Amino acid sequence: MSRSILAAVDVSDTENDAKVLREAWKLAQLDGAQLDVVTVVPDFGMSVVGGFFSPDFHEKAVAKAREALDRFVAETLGPEANRKIRHVVATGKVYEEILHAARVAGSDLIVVGAHKPELADYLLGPNAARVVRHADCSVYVVR
Question: What is this structure's pTM?
Fold first, then answer.
């Protein structure tokens, strides 16, 4: 029985991640668990690429991601459910930030999607595979 569930979604791929969010919400409702939803903004600031962006790019990207996450959850689950869910916007490497958010929230379950396999035998996307390998809690993979 879960007390805290973390759903990892990509707000730029809402068509596929709506299924992830709905499944996580269903699991949270079954267990009476708190649902947190995390999305990750890449960190361009530390690389050579960062020099091509304006100094306030990161803040704008995080604000846009926060708005998109709020809108996505409300449109997918409804405004009442959206008010009950904690929204997390993190910056960095996707799998590292998902694992960090799960540790901070004390999540006992992470829900991720198996995104865009390139080959027939390639079962999980690279971030989902890393989350599965390195998580301290159970991971539920939505296909």
Answer: 0.89
